[in-house]
Specification:
9 helices, two-stranded antiparallel ribbon, single chain, alpha+beta, 2 domains, Pdz3 Domain, four-stranded antiparallel β-sheet, disordered C terminus
Length: 379
Amino acid sequence: MESVLENSLRVFYAVLAFGILIFFHELGHFLMAKLMNVKVVTFALGFGAKIFKVRRGETDYALCAIPLGGYVKMLGEELDEEVPPHEIHRSFSAKSIPTRFSIVMAGPAFNLALAALIVALLHLGEVPYLPPKVQEVVEGSPASQAGILPGDEIIAVNGKAIKRFQELRERILESEGAPLQLSLMREGTVLDLTVLPRMKVELSPYGDEMRLWQIGIVPASEVRFETFGPVGALWQGIRWTWEKCWFTVKTLWKLLTGKESIKNIGSPLLIGAEAAKQAEFGLSSYLSFIAFVSVILAVMNLLPIPILDGSHLLYFLVEAVIRRPLSKRFLGVAQYVGVGILVCIMAWAVYRDLDRFYWKAKRSQSQAVEMEQKRDSSP
């Protein structure tokens, strides 16, 4: 009974996370369309059969059976849609390029705003953090070879001041093995030295290989506090969101160039599993994860893959240059290509998640049984 309840809670937290992310994305499209006097026919969360629908004014609000997406259907948005003459002025296709651009851009923008708002709320008031102070240096590690000692506090990396151990960790991970110039405080004296990070391959909780750059230090258990007012907290949210945007872009580039294994790609199954896991660590971890995925969703939607928001933004820019709309035939073919690309990506991602959550577990179970049988048969 307890396991059923636990699994139900995991599913609930996963669905709730998806619901929040999708709702804010579609809300951006919806509100901007309303602001620009474009008629919104349907606002739906999920895909597939509508399990709940209500009409308010001129818009149908629906909840669909598959909670892995959503859409805002606007008048005149479909390629071959017939628009009544008296409503042409409220049609999406009849609006100016800047108007259409702002409506499409509003979805990713709202996801970024959601991430910044969540992080800002988590920073409001007194926030604990670990300083970049060294408690232990691993013997034979890059830090040991560079001369770092227990008790040292690293105050800058490559000339840029840091305040938290998390900032130091991120600079090391981003180094890609390049030498780091560290400034550290030792007994009231500032010292400068160079450390060369070393790559270490570890397994994630889901069995994926992670290539991590490390210098071999353990942070001190000392906890410090910093207080943020509304403005300071909002700035932290904006800065964090920008940093995660850039991190996501770099990760996508690594995937395209082969520096990051495509085996680490995950489907909504992985996102849902991680959302449920973070919920077990507390509300702060859960909200932080939602903020991070919201950034990823925004960046992914801006990719110029047909049917994603980024492709529409690209079409608008091309239309502005050539001063005429792209042909319906081209847009139709592009849509089919985009669906094909996304289906292939999703199929691979689902395959990887099945391997993570099912096949690896089966293999591990079989190996454990084989080892047990060998022990039983040994003299």
